[in-house]
């Protein structure tokens, strides 16, 4: 019996290594949800398992801005966020999706993202490929894409593409080429990724905050070996970006 449990445990670990977490933030299981299911089938074709989580099935309280999670390492609100955050940490890649409401992501998704504020200080998802999906009747695609990219930068995840559908092309099937960057990042080593200058700068801001403002953050960064890094991991970064990044760090370190 013990051997059987060990085998199951090993198999579960293997599955986790190839499992994509798909987060649906639409109340209706219609346009956004159907696009996600199409993506799921393409992931299966490429030997990835996936799980769709519908945010409206979970209790997610509004963030109160008390910073308890940042200071003490946990939120005192009793809801499903710990469960959802662990799901995200345990996945090998994340797909965030939203219908576009008033030119941006849904309120439900924004509430969830707000509750991950401690990940700005202790980026648990650093290096995880993240694909974004949005659907709209007409407008807001450009603004929503920017919102999604900002979330990725704050989390330290790898921006792995953006799939959008409007009323003009909502019936167009999702093509595998639309997932090409996501699939490549899932299959390649992290060093394949090319962080933008803003991603590199935010990394340095976070590092300075870890060194100067919170001992819990400092320990987290130390344990991951990030305190002497130009980025979370070795990746494609040209010399000018490295020089500028180090200059930003020195300037901020003196100011904070």
From TrEMBL:
Keyword Cell inner membrane: no
Entry-linked Gene3D superfamilies: 3.40.50.360
Residue ranges constituting the NADPH-dependent FMN reductase-like domain according to the UniProt record: 19-145
Keywords: Flavoprotein, FMN
InterPro entries for this protein: Flavoprotein-like_sf, FMN_Rdtase-like_dom, ISF_SsuE-like
Single GO MF descriptor: oxidoreductase activity
Pfam families in the record: FMN_red (PF03358)
Record bears the keyword Flavoprotein: yes
SUPFAM superfamilies cross-referenced by the UniProt entry: Flavoproteins
PANTHER family listed in its UniProt record: NAD(P)H-DEPENDENT FMN-CONTAINING OXIDOREDUCTASE YWQN-RELATED
Name the UniProt record assigns to this protein: NADPH-dependent FMN reductase-like domain-containing protein
Organism of this sequence: Clostridium drakei
């Amino acid at each position: 019996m013990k051997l059987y449990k060990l085998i199951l445990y090993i198999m579960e670990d293997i599955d986790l290594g190839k499992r994509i977490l798909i987060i649906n933030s639409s109340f209706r299981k219609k346009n956004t949800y159907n696009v996600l299911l199409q993506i799921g089938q393409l992931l299966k074709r490429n030997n990835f398992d996936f799980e769709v989580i519908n945010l409206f099935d979970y209790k997610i309280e509004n963030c109160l801005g008390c910073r308890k999670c940042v200071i003490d390492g946990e939120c005192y609100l009793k809801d499903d966020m710990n469960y959802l955050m662990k799901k995200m940490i345990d996945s090998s890649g994340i797909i965030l999706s939203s219908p576009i409401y008033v030119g941006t992501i849904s309120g439900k998704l924004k509430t969830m993202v707000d509750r991950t504020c401690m990940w700005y200080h202790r980026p648990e998802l650093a290096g995880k490929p993240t694909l974004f999906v949005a659907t709209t009747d007409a407008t807001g695609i450009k603004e929503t894409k920017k919102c999604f990219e900002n979330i990725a930068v704050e989390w330290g995840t790898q921006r792995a593409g953006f799939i959008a559908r409007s009323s003009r092309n909502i019936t167009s099937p999702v093509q595998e080429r639309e997932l090409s960057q996501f699939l490549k990042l899932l299959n390649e080593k992290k060093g394949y990724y090319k962080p933008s200058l803003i991603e590199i700068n935010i990394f340095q801001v976070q590092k300075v905050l870890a060194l100067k403002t919170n001992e819990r953050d400092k320990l987290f960064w130390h344990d991951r070996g990030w305190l002497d890094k130009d980025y979370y991991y070795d990746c494609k970064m040209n010399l000018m970006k490295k020089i500028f990044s180090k200059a930003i760090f020195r300037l901020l370190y003196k100011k904070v």
